[in-house]
Amino acid sequence: MQLNLTGEGRQRKLRIAIGNKTMLLDGLGIDSFVEQLALFRASMLPRVPDAMIPTHDYPITVDPCWYIEPSLLMEAMTIFFRHEGLGWTGFALTDAECEAWIGELRAVARGIEASASVEMRQ
Which structural domain, as residue segments, surrounds residue 74? Predict the structure, then answer.
């Protein structure tokens, strides 16, 4: 399989070649393809690891968008994050998971604040 970008600016398309077959996908086509791949991957083994792999180069978005709403299917809230290449991904969190997550965010924020104040004093 070969993947190449063709075109210029906002008119770019992804060219996928497998053997003698070729397909072109625009941005919306890629969105649909990525969503389908994610659903297929979730049903496959080995599972995605529960812990991050420190040496892996994960895609990161700077200044992401997010949206939060109550889950209609369970007693939880759903938080959606937007990645500029992967699209929107949602996570349903129970109250206990939200509290644990907020605690971890506060701990990291305090560490950043403490580090910044030490740097300012030096």
Answer: 59-122
